[in-house]
Amino acid sequence: MASNTALDLKEATNHDELVDQASKHDEKTLVAPSAEPSVTGRQAHVLERYINLASVVNFGVIILASWESFAVTFQFALANGGPASMFYGSILAGFGCCAVGFSLAELASIDPTVGAQYRWSANLAPSGKRFWGLLQGWITTAAWCFACGGPPSILANIISSLAIFNNENYVPERWHISLIMIATMIVPFVFNLWFRKLLDAFEITGGIMHIVLFIVFIVVLIVFGPRSDSDFVFKTLISDVSGWNNPGVSWGLGLLSMTFSVTGFDSVLHMSDEVRKVRTRVPRSIILACTVNSVMLFVFVTVMLFYLGPLTEEVTTAPLPLIYVLYGATKSKAATNCLISLLAVIIFFALFNMFASVSRLVWVFARDNGLPFSPFFAYVHPTLKLPVNALLLLSAVVTCLSLIYIASATAFNALISLQALALHVSYFFPIFFMLLRKLRGPPPPYGPFKLGAVGIPLNIFSLCYLVYVVLWMPFPQILPVTKDNMNYAGPIFGAVILGALGHWFLRARKTFKMPVTRYE
């Protein structure tokens, strides 16, 4: 990378030390536009900085978990787009992820804050700053709260699929899946209560497993898997299985599985108040999370397509086709069970990190009076030094989603699908407002990480990529559309927007506190 985009470590360290020393003071001196006392003014809600470089880097890399996410969800791309969509889509998604991630890393270097997207939007918007802050806060918080139901549902799918694989007579009921989801949620919730003590061990273990298991999967597939023809990988476009007969539409819908695998790199931003030397370490974590996971995703997709084997009925219709891909390669149930179980462990680590990250986002948004019952959710336990009430909210959300699954799998999937759409929208606005500042001038004072001459082109490419991806997300995956296969992401997202607007006009326009950033 060119010198004008490099991190000036010496200068950055000095800046970070000042930020660390001033963090508690800043909580008392941030300016709010309203005369009413803020949540911060009534109680001291401050987290301590203790997370080191290794932990914050592994945190970002693990929670993205690109190749693991693709491995357990690629069945959706098989019906739309197929191998060609997966291969070329992984390239586009990788470049798009890095462009957006680098743009956010520049913003994180300027103003590292737990609120991230909503505080940047508010402070960079040319007008209506508090309105944009609240709207962005609702979008980001809702996306991540519902996203917390994703890993438990994946873990439930893994466990039930392994049960079917080992016992063909087993037929999972919906309430079985719900109970598994609740059980897998309880463990990371309890572990998060001792987050400070478990952090280093969890992040190091998860980081090692993320890389080692990737190598193991690659070796197993190459050594034991049947090799496919190159035409199958590069030229096979499936457009007649899902009902969409247009190859372009099928390719675009297949791309969503790739983008889902590299979405969520903003999670480490929401830990900013607990990271030492935050203005260099958080940008580094985002950059490494995006680049490392994008490369791993591309390699894994390419290898798996070459050694996928024949598209049997089990591979194309199973809830977790990876089981039958591995079994077809190894011919061993023991090896297949072991590999899938280790994959589930990494997803568990990602859920642990997700609970930590989202609880901080809820906490800081409540601290700015952005939520109903903000004083309750802004509470920090004096002994644990954690936002315990925010953690309880996430547990309640996952529990409710699990119970909804019993009544309707469609409703559950509709709520879960909000994550990808809302997160991509949340990335758009701060990058767009930053681009406007760069074009109109003057931009805010840059931090240690600066994109330099490539900043404006990279920001423009990021926005184009986000718009392109978001346009496909409300499309139904299967035709003809019924109430069971309808894509409800668009309506759910609209409901979140209406909720934010209602909150703004009823109360938040008077009570929402948008503190100015340190550079202001």
UniProtKB/TrEMBL annotation:
<feature type="transmembrane region" description="Helical">
    <location>
        <begin position="414"/>
        <end position="436"/>
    </location>
</feature>
<feature type="transmembrane region" description="Helical">
    <location>
        <begin position="339"/>
        <end position="365"/>
    </location>
</feature>
<protein>
    <submittedName>
        <fullName>Amino acid transporter</fullName>
    </submittedName>
</protein>
<feature type="transmembrane region" description="Helical">
    <location>
        <begin position="207"/>
        <end position="228"/>
    </location>
</feature>
<keyword id="KW-0813">Transport</keyword>
<feature type="transmembrane region" description="Helical">
    <location>
        <begin position="175"/>
        <end position="195"/>
    </location>
</feature>
<feature type="transmembrane region" description="Helical">
    <location>
        <begin position="131"/>
        <end position="155"/>
    </location>
</feature>
<dbReference type="InterPro" id="IPR002293">
    <property type="entry name" value="AA/rel_permease1"/>
</dbReference>
<feature type="transmembrane region" description="Helical">
    <location>
        <begin position="488"/>
        <end position="506"/>
    </location>
</feature>
<feature type="transmembrane region" description="Helical">
    <location>
        <begin position="286"/>
        <end position="308"/>
    </location>
</feature>
<feature type="transmembrane region" description="Helical">
    <location>
        <begin position="386"/>
        <end position="408"/>
    </location>
</feature>
<keyword id="KW-0812">Transmembrane</keyword>
<feature type="transmembrane region" description="Helical">
    <location>
        <begin position="448"/>
        <end position="468"/>
    </location>
</feature>
<keyword id="KW-0472">Membrane</keyword>
<dbReference type="GO" id="GO:0022857">
    <property type="term" value="F:transmembrane transporter activity"/>
</dbReference>
<keyword id="KW-1133">Transmembrane helix</keyword>
<dbReference type="Pfam" id="PF13520">
    <property type="entry name" value="AA_permease_2"/>
</dbReference>
<dbReference type="GO" id="GO:0016020">
    <property type="term" value="C:membrane"/>
</dbReference>
<feature type="transmembrane region" description="Helical">
    <location>
        <begin position="50"/>
        <end position="67"/>
    </location>
</feature>
<feature type="transmembrane region" description="Helical">
    <location>
        <begin position="248"/>
        <end position="265"/>
    </location>
</feature>
<feature type="transmembrane region" description="Helical">
    <location>
        <begin position="87"/>
        <end position="110"/>
    </location>
</feature>
